[in-house]
């Protein structure tokens, strides 16, 4: 049955319980130009983006800039998927302030974005809406299978897995998506701290990449250099002092 524009809006308004676009926009504003390119040029990322690997896990210490990096990745993937109607990308940001398990909210947002892309809503979602029941994670996973089939590849990037309450649930869901024969079109990329329960859950399914590496140090150097030159107080310093300050700050940052 064909839905009117108003009917589809009502269903999607009910379906989507969290809109992470403000988190994304805020993170994008914090991104320093010319940083993050080390990742997009890395073989791990290139293999994921090309579909040679399906799950990439980026981990780093608190303050390593994971959220800003995720926003950069989401924008890069969005640009890439615009080249074909068969490709689509969706981002999601977990946030400790929500103080909840993010699993169903994540799935509802992803499904909602895919529905917008195809311009329709699966019958299962319409029935849930009409019956006034809240879907379970398992039911949402079945719906995801249906909507993902409309694309040759679906890129999903998700930030801060460690910030989801009862995070075992969302970790288990991501592994189910990876292992499902019906969801092989989905490419997953997630960020988090490197904590033991997350590592045990995601490996060996995911390829891992640490944010503690020399390439990140170059990004930090780029950021520090820009700040030292843009601030009027620091811009008056002699080059030798700015260079020394830059080196000390980069060394002391330890990947943060």
Work out the count of structural domains.
2
CATH architecture level-2 label of the largest domain? 3-Layer(aba) Sandwich
Provide the gyration radius in Å.
20 Å
- Poorly predicted runs: none
Overall geometry: elongated
What is the topology?
Elements: H1 5-15, H2 21-30, H3 37-40, H4 43-50, E1 55-59, H5 66-81, E2 87-93, H6 103-118, H7 123-131, H8 137-148, E3 153-159, H9 168-179, E4 186-192, H10 196-202, E5 207-210, H11 214-230, H12 232-235, H13 239-253
Parallel strand pairs: 1-4, 1-5, 2-3, 3-4
How is this structure best summarized?
This protein is 55% helix and 12% strand.
General description of the model:
- The protein is α/β, with parallel strands linked by helices and 256 residues long.
- The chain has two domains: 5-211, Rossmann fold (3-Layer(aba) Sandwich); 213-256, no CATH class.
- The chain is 55% helix and 12% strand.
- It is built from 13 helices and five strands.
- It has helices spanning 5-15, 21-30, 37-40, 43-50, 66-81, 103-118, 123-131, 137-148, 168-179, 196-202, 214-230, 232-235, 239-253; strands at residues 55-59, 87-93, 153-159, 186-192, 207-210.
- Strands 2-3-4-1-5 form a five-stranded parallel beta sheet, sandwiched between helices.
- Strand 3, helix 9 (168-179) and strand 4 form a beta-alpha-beta unit.
- Helix 6 packs parallel to helix 8 (137-148).
- The chain is elongated, with a radius of gyration of 20 Å.
- The protein starts with a helix and ends with a helix.
- The mean pLDDT is 89.
